[in-house]
Design brief:
The chain is an alpha+beta fold. The protein contains two helices and four strands. The protein has a four-stranded antiparallel sheet, covered by helices on one side. Strand 2 and strand 3 form a beta hairpin. The longest helix has 15 residues. It is globular.
Amino acid sequence: MRAYKVSGMTCSGCERSVTQALKERFGDEIAVEASAHRGEVRVSEAADPQIVVFTIDSAGYTVDEVKDS
């Protein structure tokens, strides 16, 4: 899983919005774990990081950092 530090997620609704946007873009075959508490979204490494960042930004949130875990 690759970790994305995300600004702007404040609640479970934000987690759902990010997760839904990523699932719409990549399909259900990728794993997505969004945590507003940690300000982090974890996505399967199979997903292209540039497209993940674009998708999260398009959903209204800001990616501050990308880390391989």
